[in-house]
Design brief:
Number of strands: 13
Largest sheet: 5 strands, antiparallel
Shape: globular
Radius of gyration: 21 Å
Strand order of the largest sheet: 1-2-9-12-13
Order of helices and strands: HHEHEEEEEEHEEHEEHEE
Strand content: 25-35%
Number of helices: 6
Structural class: alpha+beta
Helix content: 25-40%
Length: 226
C-alpha cells in the first residue's frame, strides 16, 4: 500500500510539471502516505502493551482533548484506554506512595503501586507496581520483597475521585541488539524469558492520564524505569 502511494506521488510530481495535476492533489496524497505510515507504526507498537495490561486496554475512544496532541500521537508509545472485564470505563484510583506536585511517586524506601477500581463492579486492576513491572524491576533490581506503604485514595485538583484513564509507555532498548547471541534472557529473579517478552514487559517509561467528571485532563504519572 505504501509503495503504491509513493509511486503515485512520483507520477503526480511528473504530471505537476506538465500542469496535469494540482498542488492540492499532491498535498492530499502526501497526507495519506503520512497517515498510513503512522497507523502502521502505531499498530506495531500496540503489540508491545505489557502482558498484565492487555486484558484491560482498548485502542479507541481517547479523550477528545488528546486526539490532536502530537505528543500523545507519537507512534513510539503503546497506549490504550482502561476498560474493566465488565466494559466499565469509570474508575477510582488508589496508590501506595506519595503525591509530589500532584504526580504519584514512590515514598522513600517503599515502591510505588497504583490500582484502579471500577466504580460499579469494584474490579481491581493493577496499573503499575514498581516491584514487578518495567525494565528496572525485571532486569536491574529485585524489589519483590520490599513492602508497600499503606494504600490511599487519589483525589485530583478538582476534588474529584472518579476518572476515565489512559495509560501509555515505551521502551528505548533494542533487545535484539542488547542480547544478539541468545534467544533467552535471565531476569533479575532468576526466571528465563524470550526477547519478545522483554519487548512487551521491560518498558522503561510509563505515564498515566486521567479525565474527571468535569472534563479536566491531568497527567498523574510520568516515570522512567531504567
Amino acid at each position: 500500500m505504501i509503495r503504491w502511494m509513493i509511486r503515485r506521488v512520483r507520477l503526480l510530481e511528473i504530471r505537476k510539471h506538465t500542469c496535469q495535476v494540482s498542488v492540492i492533489e499532491i498535498s492530499y496524497t502526501y497526507r495519506c502516505i503520512y497517515k498510513q505510515i503512522t497507523d502502521n507504526l502505531i499498530q506495531k507498537y500496540m503489540e508491545y502493551i505489557p502482558d498484565y495490561l492487555k486484558p484491560f486496554i482498548i485502542h479507541k475512544d481517547y479523550f477528545p482533548e488528546l486526539i490532536e496532541d502530537s505528543w500523545f500521537n507519537n507512534p513510539v508509545y503503546w497506549k490504550g484506554r482502561l476498560i474493566s472485564p465488565q466494559h466499565e470505563t469509570k474508575f477510582r484510583l488508589y496508590f501506595c506512595g506519595e503525591l509530589i506536585d500532584n504526580y504519584m511517586a514512590n515514598k522513600q524506601n517503599f515502591p510505588l503501586a497504583i490500582y484502579a477500581y471500577s466504580v460499579n463492579s469494584g474490579e481491581k486492576i493493577t496499573l503499575f507496581d514498581e516491584r514487578y513491572n518495567g525494565y528496572e524491576a525485571l532486569l536491574i533490581e529485585n524489589k519483590r520483597e520490599l513492602p508497600l506503604s499503606h494504600e490511599i485514595q487519589f483525589v485530583d485538583k478538582d476534588a474529584e475521585t472518579e476518572f476515565e484513564i489512559i495509560i501509555l509507555g515505551c521502551s528505548n532498548t533494542d533487545f535484539d541488539d542488547e542480547y544478539p547471541a541468545t534467544e533467552q534472557v535471565q531476569l533479575i529473579n532468576g526466571d528465563w524469558v524470550n526477547k519478545e517478552y522483554l519487548k512487551c514487559n521491560a518498558f522503561d517509561f510509563i505515564s498515566i492520564l486521567i479525565r474527571n467528571a468535569k472534563g479536566q485532563v491531568y497527567t498523574i504519572l510520568e516515570m522512567e524505569l531504567s
